[in-house]
UniProtKB/TrEMBL annotation:
Similarity field: Belongs to the glycosyl hydrolase 9 (cellulase E) family.
Protein name: Endoglucanase
Catalytic activity: Endohydrolysis of (1->4)-beta-D-glucosidic linkages in cellulose, lichenin and cereal beta-D-glucans
Entry-linked Pfam families: Glyco_hydro_9
GO biological process: cellulose catabolic process
EC numbers: 3.2.1.4
Cleaved signal peptide residues: 1-18
Active site, per annotation: D487, E496
Enzyme class: hydrolase
Keywords: Carbohydrate metabolism, Cellulose degradation, Glycosidase, Hydrolase, Polysaccharide degradation, Signal
């Protein structure tokens, strides 16, 4: 684009709307389009993946839908939850429903905004190629605009709207969502260091993305989408980032929002806040160019012993994102470290990041391994959403690969990341591309109350027999560790959808648009080659009965003796496994009744 064209584009945008309007409207093609090889450049299949991955966020919208530059694209969704915030005399309408249900959960939402914005900052030109920049803008603003409402004063941040208990008992459409839908804030008396920090990081990276002609070049090809810059919006996002970080950094005691608010917010009880605070400080450094934030980030990295950890990247853990961002900043903004009196130390950040990635590649990662079919699986973290941690690592590896210390490492990381993405897209033992509506073999039964059309919580799998609406672009939880996948609507561990499950896909698709002219794997997958496995899944959603061959009398005898012991063990495990139980609670409440 010539400078004159850019100027024209900018001035046109300025004279019309507060946000970008799509030059070509996009709506998802039917699944059968996934069988046709693309003959165009950029590859139309990758453009569709990108378009669909953003469309999913439109389907999750809450509040009045006919807002923003392009209004509501999802004809089967209705305005809903229009009283949110009324219990606090605030307007907390808008935002997104978290998963297959109707609570609004801030913590995974901020993780999602962070992941999409950070990816777009370095790989944004893929959105331009696919003509998806306006939809990216619309998606991000839908999230950030709500987050702004959820942060009505310096220390107050609403971390959830809607009660888990009330929501758990409901399975139905968006017109009968049960009330009341209380708002849950953290504030100076009830601190949430993790929630404040994660929101600060999301706002900060958003403000960098929206800074017009921002210069952030970890690699020579890094670029945000061409026309997304808006200095007013960037400044608004940054001011929220600063006050949230100040709340997180200055309020004592530092503790998680779950520690402050308890069981009502147990759906996303994070393990700790150290990683969130560190990532927030680092992202604020990037957004402000102020070395004091960099000094905080580095000090917390040292103080909280963040080096050398083997943790996934998901809503609960920022660890590997911290490594990669330090490496990016050592390359793109070396003055932040030197300004804080520290060494830039690119070599050190490369060593940190590569130590992490190489453990995965070499099969030495704590609880991490490849399934037989080739999916990166972490026992525990992958059990109820197997694709999410694998896609997060893929995004980080693609992002970091060009910064690696040797060209052979660049190649290994790129190849490994590609293998994970290919698995998602159908190169797996089930022949299933795990994106709804992308291909005839895609999941047909995502665990989503609004999309299902069902109203009978006792018959989620079978009523109605066919999902009412196609939830295009939704990444489902994913297969089990033996690569088997049951496309059952009640098996939330495998078929639920969520904001965070989709968070890596837009960036991964944008990366492919930049570099890959080949079709995504699913184009070569024959329709009709998936079938439900035999037997029972035996996962968190549908646990198998123990069931031995003992007689009734023997069972009764053993039972009495065992019960007391079990009770004790259960109590101990409950305490020890608080975190993962909370996760199970989050998505596992709709116990199947089949
Ligand atoms: C920039 O964003 C602000 C805040 O959303 C909006 O009011 C304004 O119209 C936008 N400017 C342009 C040029 O799009
Ligand atoms: C939206 O409203 C229409 C008309 O009442 C209804 O048919 C549809 O199922 C609703 N959508 C959802 C997700 O409940
Ligand atoms: C602070 O947060 C707590 C817990 O959510 C809430 O009960 C209390 O009303 C809040 N205080 C103010 C002043 O908003
Ligand atoms: C920070 O510095 C970069 C160049 O290194 C510049 O592009 C950016 O606008 C600056 N950000 C702020 C908030 O001053
Ligand atoms: C964050 O808090 C620490 C004290 O815990 C302080 O030393 C530091 O200056 C604060 N950071 C900023 C940016 O104000
Ligand atoms: C650079 O990083 C390495 C590896 O983390 C570390 O051992 C070394 O002390 C760092 N050097 C400086 C000057 O900070
Ligand atoms: C795409 O290719 C460019 C150079 O051709 C490289 O710098 C970049 O890292 C590649 N991106 C991905 C995601 O592989």
């Amino acid at each position: 684009m010539t400078p004159l064209q850019s100027l024209l584009l900018l001035s046109c945008a300025g004279s019309t709307l507060a946000q970008l309007t799509p030059s070509a409207t996009y709506s998802p093609p039917s699944a059968s389009a996934g069988l046709t090889s693309s003959t165009s450049t950029p590859n139309a299949q990758w453009s569709n993946i990108l378009g669909n991955s953003l469309y999913f966020y439109d389907a999750q919208r809450s509040g009045k839908l006919d807002q923003g530059a392009y209004g509501n694209r999802v004809e089967w969704r209705n305005d809903s939850a229009l009283e949110d915030g009324s219990d606090w005399n605030l307007d907390l309408t808008g935002g997104w429903y978290d998963a297959g249900d109707y609570i609004k959960a801030t913590f995974p939402l901020t993780f999602t905004l962070f992941a999409i914005s950070w990816g777009a900052l370095t790989h944004g030109h893929g959105y331009d190629l696919a003509q998806q920049t306006a939809y990216l803008d619309g998606t991000l603003r839908w999230g950030y605009d709500w987050l702004i409402k959820a942060h009505p004063s310096d220390n107050t941040l609403f971390v959830q709207v809607g009660s888990g208990d009330v929501d758990n008992a409901y399975w139905g459409g968006d017109q009968d969502i049960p009330t009341p839908r209380p708002g849950y804030p953290v504030n100076s008396s009830f601190p949430g260091t993790d929630a404040w920090s994660s929101a600060a990081a999301a706002f900060a990276i958003g403000s960098v993305l929206y800074t017009p002609s921002v210069s952030y070049n970890p690699t020579s090809s890094s670029a945000p989408p061409e026309s997304i810059g808006n200095s007013t919006y960037a400044a608004t996002l940054l001011s929220h980032a600063r006050t949230l970080y100040a709340a997180a950094n200055n309020t004592t005691p530092r503790q998680t929002y779950y520690e402050s608010l308890g069981e009502s917010v147990a759906a996303y009880a994070s393990s700790n806040w150290n990683d969130d605070l560190t990532l927030a400080a680092l992202t604020l450094a990037l957004a402000t160019n102020e070395s004091s934030y960099y000094a905080d980030a580095y000090n917390y990295y040292v103080q909280y012993k963040i080096s050398g950890l083997q943790e996934v990247w998901n809503w609960d853990s920022a660890i590997p994102a911290i490594y990669v961002m330090f490496a990016e900043i050592a390359t793109a903004r070396p003055e932040l470290a030197t300004g804080a009196g520290l060494s830039t130390n690119l070599t050190g950040w490369q060593a940190e990041t590569e130590n992490y990635f190489d453990k995965i590649l070499d099969g030495n990662f704590k609880r991490g391994y490849l399934t037989k079919g080739g999916l990166l699986y972490f026992d525990g973290d992958s059990d109820e959403a197997s694709l999410n941690p694998a896609m997060a690592i893929a995004m980080l590896m693609f992002k970091y690969a060009p910064l690696a210390s040797s060209s052979s490492k660049t190649e290994s990381y790129t190849n490994f990341a590609q293998s994970q993405l290919n698995y998602l897209l159908g190169n797996n033992p089930m022949n299933v591309p795990y994106i709804v509506g992308q291909h005839p073999n895609s999941p047909q039964n995502p665990h989503s109350a609004p999309a299902s059309g069902g109203t009978d919580i006792k018959a989620i799998r079978t009523s109605p027999p066919t999902e009412a609406y196609v939830l295009y672009g939704a990444v489902v939880g994913g297969p089990l560790s033996d690569d088997r996948f049951w496309d059952w609507r009640d098996d939330w561990a495998q078929t639920e959808v969520a904001l965070d499950y989709n968070a890596m896909l837009p960036t991964l698709a944008s990366m492919q648009l930049l570099n890959n002219t080949a079709d995504p794997h699913y184009v070569s997958v024959q329709a009709g080659t998936y079938s439900i496995p035999s037997g029972q899944p035996c996962d968190a959603a549908l646990p198998c009965e123990g069931g031995g061959g003992l007689s009734g009398g023997a069972k009764a005898g053993i039972a009495i003796g065992v019960i007391l012991g079990v009770l004790l063990i259960v109590a101990a495990i409950c305490y020890w496994k608080r975190k993962s139980l909370a996760r199970t609670w989050r998505k596992g409440y709709r116990r199947p009744t089949v």
